[in-house]
Amino acid sequence: YPQQHTLETQLSKFNLTKIEAMLGSYTKVLFVRDPFQRLISTFMQGMGSSTSFSSFVQDVLDSGQHNASVAWKPLISLCQPCFVQYDYVVMFGFLRQELGHLLQRSGLAVDSLIPEFTDTQVRWTYSWLSEQMFRELSLQQKKQLSHFYRWDLAAFQFASSFLSD
């Protein structure tokens, strides 16, 4: 967009006309990840101060959506997919396949730009890890998490999410 602004400028600082012009001039890509996998990743990175995954999930649920950290806040509230017309939605776990398609559609050389991804290993590992972590949760926590992420689960096709049931 041909307007000078600093990298720190947030979209919300512009008026609606400028926002529409800016968004219309960019190729918009949204990277999404299963919300339960995001929770696991956040917990594994030590971002939660809880000693167990179940305690961490309870802290997340107790914080509520309005006070949630960006690390686990529902994607719908972060990315506004109902208002922003994204050109591409790329799912975590399918990065190699989807990035190849995205680069090809953009007219860029696919083979030279895509790093080596091990999507199959990542999906298998997260599937196994999700199963183990899901077992730690009470039935009430599972229901509350499904409710917490209900709009993400409705908006994106997380076919194998433990929260979809």
TrEMBL record:
It is a single-pass type II membrane protein. It comes from the Eukaryota. Its main location: Golgi. Its EC number is 2.8.2.-. It is found in: Golgi apparatus membrane. One of its GO terms (molecular function) is sulfotransferase activity. The keyword Thylakoid does not apply. InterPro entries: Carb_sulfotrans_8-10 (IPR018011), Sulfotransferase (IPR005331). Keywords: Carbohydrate metabolism, Glycoprotein, Golgi apparatus, Membrane, Signal-anchor, Transferase, Transmembrane, Transmembrane helix. The keyword Transferase applies. GO terms for cellular component: Golgi membrane. Pfam families: Sulfotransfer_2 (PF03567). One of its GO terms (biological process) is carbohydrate biosynthetic process. Belongs to the sulfotransferase 2 family. This is Carbohydrate sulfotransferase. The gene is Chst9_0.
